[in-house]
Design brief:
The structure is a homodimer of 214-residue chains. Chain A has 214 residues and is of the alpha+beta class. Chain A is built from ten helices and four strands, in the order E-H-E-H-E-E-H-H-H-H-H-H-H-H. The radius of gyration of chain A is 17 Å and the shape is globular.
């Protein structure tokens, strides 16, 4: 870690930006936020595409100018450069189980529901309601699988403290609330959510608490 | 690693199964294949949902009975239990750059194009051609971003040997060929592909070389 403060290109409502904010807060990694307004398409302007050719947030500019993209890569990097508190167990098998739950959100739920996909469905002639039904379906399927991949007897998904799985779950639940997903079948998940949001690292990372929140 | 051979639940054409086969071949990790026929819906039968509640392949049953899911989690696990040859650099920043390219495929391309999403589009009234256009669009966007995230002066994506990025790229290119994506704009990627497919680890993992190939 250099002495220069890093810059996190993010959007307050982006669930992938929210993941990174949580992890950085847990680990005490200092960063400045550079807001990218996804609603205005700022992720697609040429100067931002120089930062992230993937046209998304988050992206992280390190003190040496190196830019890291992809929230899951940034989270693994954070675990490597700031190992305490750990968001992954030490044992390889247990690490794989935590990562599998996290990737259940990061690959099976979030990508099919994000802004660019819903925008494409709209351009293909689907109504707002059809877009909403699409999101609800993938979230319900994903949350059912997630609930079966985590432990059922721990305060957080896999233990006594938040892990990569909790860091992916809580932003996705924020998204679920935003779009009115019925979460009554997922009491284990909303219990974990309440416990997480009681922690300053999660509360301070919450979308509504960001300076760029509209 | 236990002495018992592990079982990889996989499908010959599944690009995520293909990723794991490549990595295991590179690292000399022995495994038996348990074919799951996605075309027949075997991923959704109750006995398989006990293996993987996410209803997908691959899943890996370890010698002690533990089941690991999600290809990206299995690949990280493989790197941890069988570190040679490495598929990630040692330096955290460089690891993050390789992972970012890999996740560009694993989160931004594959999930929006997989069987269950295309099936849903069909059920929403879209034709085969519209499903195909959908896949082509996401692959072109993803390959453009990927090409800008890798190095342009190395035999493989990031160096002298295949990394996690190559392991994600080659199966996605297989999928691109399968669906007729125009790859003329991506000479760097198809050059890397040719170099990879010359290696036995990749060739042996190729879908057409699997026992369950139809």
């Amino acid at each position: 870690m250099t002495g220069l403060t890093m810059q996190l290109y993010s959007h307050w409502r982006s669930t992938t930006s929210y993941r990174v904010r949580i992890a950085f807060n847990l680990k005490g990694i200092a960063f400045d936020t550079v807001p990218i307004d996804l609603g205005k398409g700022e992720q697609r302007v040429p100067t931002y595409l120089e930062v992230n050719p993937g046209a998304g947030v988050p992206a992280l500019r390190l003190g040496d100018g190196t830019i890291l993209t992809q929230s899951m890569a940034i989270l693994e990097w954070a675990e490597e450069v700031a190992p305490k508190p750990a968001i992954l167990p030490q044992d390889p098998e247990r690490r794989a189980l935590v990562r599998a739950a996290a990737f259940g959100i990061a690959t099976d739920v979030h990508p099919v529901n994000n802004l660019r996909v819903i925008g494409k469905l709209n351009r293909m002639g689907h109504s707002q309601e059809e877009g909403l039904a699409w999101m609800h379906d993938w979230m319900a399927i994903g949350f059912h699988a997630f609930a079966r991949l985590i432990r059922d007897d721990t305060p957080f998904c896999f233990g006594e403290s938040p892990s990569l799985a909790d860091i992916c779950l809580i932003p996705q639940l924020y998204n679920a609330h935003r779009w009115g997903v019925d979460l009554t079948a997922f009491a284990r998940l909303t219990d974990i959510e309440a416990r997480c949001l009681d922690l300053p690292a999660f509360a301070d990372a919450h979308p509504e608490n960001q300076a760029d929140a509209a």
